[in-house]
Input
Amino acid sequence: MSLLEVKNLTISFGGLRAVDDFNIDIKRGQLYGLIGPNGAGKTTVFNLLTGVYKPDEGIIKLEDKDITGLKTIDINKAGIARTFQNIRLFKDLTVLDNVKVGLHNHYRYSTIEGIFRLPKYYKVEKAMDERAMELLKVFELDGEADYLASNLPYGKQRKLEIARALATEPRLLLLDEPAAGMNPNETGELMDTIRFVRDKFDMTILLIEHDMKLVSGICEALTVLNFGRILAQGQTSTVLNDPQVITAYLGE
Amino acid sequence: MSFISYLINGISLGSVYAIIALGYTMVYGIAKMLNFAHGDVIMVGSFAVFTIVSTLGLSPILGILVAVVICTVLGMAIERVAYKPLRNASSPLAVLITAIGVSYLLQNIALLIFGANTKSFTSVVTISPLKLADGQLMISGETIVTIIAGIVIMIGLTLFVNKSKAGQAMLAVSEDKGAAQLMGINVNGTIALTFAIGSALAAIAGVLLCSAYPSLTPYTGAMPGIKAFVAAVFGGIGSIPGAMIGGILLGIIEILGKAYISSQMADAIVFAVLIIVLLVKPTGILGKNIQEKV
Amino acid sequence: MKKMKMTKTAKNNFVTYFIVLIAYILVQILLKSGHMSSLMEGLLVPLCIYVMLAVSLNLTVGILGELSLGHAGFMCVGAFSGAFFSKCMDGAMPDGIRFFIALLIGAAVAGVFGIVIGIPVLRLKGDYLAIVTLAFGEIIKNLVNVLYIGKDNNGFHFSMKDSISLHLGEEGQVIVNGAQGITGTPHDASFTAGVLLIFISLFIILNLINSRDGRAIMSIRDNRIAAESTGINITKYKLMAFSISAAIAGVAGVLYAHNLSTLTALPKNFGYNMSIMILVFVVLGGIGNIRGSIISAVILTLLPELLRGLSDYRMLIYAIVLIAMMLFNWSPKAIEWKDKLKEKYFSKIPFRKEKEVK
Output
């Protein structure tokens, strides 16, 4: 069954069609890759899916529910969480608090209960701490829970961003170049983590990536974008052997 | 008749705002910062003229020249010492707060040197008033000079930006600092030049302002400075004709507001204009849209 | 691990409360033993007012991360609404209860103003937000100066023109008299009341920061776009921080009004210069550092009074220190230099700051 169904998605910036007639169909539990040369419109697709930009045309359906044109926050509530190409952590909050912000909409107490430290505050905060630590453990960040997010090394910052996204309990996780800036060792480790996340959280993942090793290693299906248009789409092995794709990547 | 004379006074005050706003708008367009101290540079220029003309008894022309030189140097020094180190600061608030500090500093230095007493500024304008409609309508020499100065400066600045190499460099830096640098433009020099021009204009504005409203204190520049920023936003920040239009409209609004609504509410009306503009069309009359990159 | 963190925050907050308490006891001892000059005694309530203003502005500037230059406007609203109530109710109820209700009214009215102004203002960013808050502050000050309210047997009368236009009956009384403001507000303010209000403000702000809402507010400060896509309601939390900050400034205003016999809205007390002075307290105490705000508000108010010879240079020194602090704390070069210094002398500390990653 389709988890994410996108039809005919289009957006222009000042006459330039950044994304043109984009279609995708992602099944539940799939690990899906979105690849393409620089400036092909991959991040724009993410921004359209998460409501940062409003599409000029097209329909986005998450689990058969139309979420086209919703605000970013409502799209997150509907079940899409993301990470960013240029890491966007809450840098002056602790690692633990970064994840707890992700838990915000699932663990509630009122402002009054918070300010006056009523029993519910302690109860809910404790539950949040426990849940956040569980998530941090998955990414082996539990030892650094008290550090400021900005003090983490690069690779761990990427992981923390994924942990924070997962804390919002999404149905679909969007990862924007998760392996950017990582060495081959770290990338290998990241591949394991992504697979693990998919299995453990029953997650559907759409990722943008340049690292072909990672893409071919974990993605089950691919869409290739070039100049805002779909160049090829389908099973990873088929797509990667498509002569058009090879040309786009290696040049004429 | 009184309406027309209010209107002319408004255009005159507005021309001063416009000249100040030109400085704001250029600095904002290029350094992407609100130079809160810009208004106080006006005050420094006025005190320079005051010292030379009233205290030393020298010629007003010399006074204006010295004021322009002092303000130009001052503007460049402020940029170099206080703003440049913060150009790449992680929070955009850092340079704004520093600018507030510079504003405070200039006011208090002036306070120490000249005291808090209001100085009576002698007008540098010697043109006699123009009498129209059988003397029912009188346009003061200051008004005539101010309006002419405003027009000349605006034309000169537009030509400079569009025709000269340095002006083109300014446009390039305001579009994209990084790209301008790659194209071999001296970004630091261009920003310094912008501050220099803006501050020189502030000196002229100061002289014109104090000639028309001849009371001078260390706080003289603060309010016109803020209002000129309102004018710059009103016209569309970063736009030279915008600053001119915004300034003149604001001057008219202020004078008419004073005359027909309430003299005590004039400032409130000016600020209400700012709020309405920012809420309805944040880019101002001639501004352009910028989208945040994700 | 997490238990340690809880106690760390709690300990930190405890130190803050403790400092205020010690200061209070110290002042009481000085007062009782007659060691305090009347000049200093006169400064006690203003000190409390400044501390509350600085702490509440820090909620907007340091925790929410938006630069407001209209804080004095909220103080003004609180002062006038509180004084208005006290003036109307003078003699109608016990002093203590009247003052308490006046404080609540000041907080509520300033808080509502915070919401009403915040809705349009908080859509703006950075410089624009700063200048528009300044504009609102000035508008409030201006409006108060042309506001006339009187009371007679027929109820309240309003005018924006003059007191004659109120058309009061013979027994009528002008309460708010335009630029002359409100005269004869009961003198309910005291140092003890001020310190109590500081405690309450601290309690609200510190507990807010260390709660679910506080985390949401700080997440917006650190990265608005990430906060939004993490499901944080930006508008709601910005408004929450802004209006709580305004409400506390309003309470400070009520305290101010009940410490003077005549309340007028002047550039000196409710103009943007006042807002900027509070901002100076916040910046020098450390943006986001609540305890720092308290200490800097106290020191910067007392120092020029203690060193009489310096009082002419007071604002000049503030200005220089402000610029120096900003350059030292925010300039990338200074930060790099400090990091190098740290690395050189404290390299044994295991978790030094990693190089920033873009």
